[in-house]
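Before the break, one more example. Copy the sequence into your notebook; we will annotate it together after we see the structure.
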Amino acid sequence: MNATEVNLPAGISADGQWCRTAMLQSLNGYDEEFLLGEGKILSAAARVTHLLTRCLRRLGPLEPVDAASVRRLTVGDREALLLHLRRLAFGDRISCLLACPNCEKKMELDMQISELLLAPYPHASPTYETLIDGEGQAYRVLFRLPNGEDQEVVAVQAAGSVESASEALLRRCIERVASADGEPICNIPSAVLHALPRKMAELDPQAEVLLNLRCPECHIQFVVPFDSADYICREISASEREFYREVHTLSFHYHWDEDDILSMNVRKRRIYLDLLTDELSGSSYS
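Here is what the structure looks like once it is written out:
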């Protein structure tokens, strides 16, 4: 099936080389059914892993792509792939409704996915080292960026305490802490746990898409996060009945098997529906 090559902001190490490209196949009917069914009982991180594993045809030189490789992707790379996936299936435009946190007035938001995607980072490394000052001394910290596996591991913990889960995720990513002169430190200082998230965010800005907005009513400025996975799931869930109506319509008029219809990507299915609508309404088309 047709797939599109996309760029990863961070990349992944594979076969001794650093790779920043992936071949991504658009959502098809089976992928939509997954999100409408078994995907709902998974944690958000596990759902993203399963969805990307279904849709990734190649990751760097890796082909086929397994779940373990998808879990190794940074949070930012997974977010970028979700944005590309949404664009391939439903187009570049995103529209949603939200409420102003100050006056609570509803406001419509229209944006382009291309505006949310970041260019490949100027840095690319499996690990990073930084110097953190705190508690009267400096610490040298060797760490890696959070990935999908980290998110899945702490997902259950996050249901009870987001703060506890965040600390657990940080501890998984820290590989070594030492004093300024290189003396190893066994217990991770609180100063490191406090300062490291900001450094990680600087190195992987695609991991959290933040929208800077201004209310047209009260003119207050505020920032809201945009969760690509949540948006896609809500978008598909909201049109669940329409999805099965589309499958029924194509099956009824073309006498195609359900498997053939569900195997189509979303865009191709919609094209056949448009042509069928034109035919049934007597419109002319070319």
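The longest helix spans residues 75-90. The chain has twelve helices and ten strands. Try to locate both features in your own notes.
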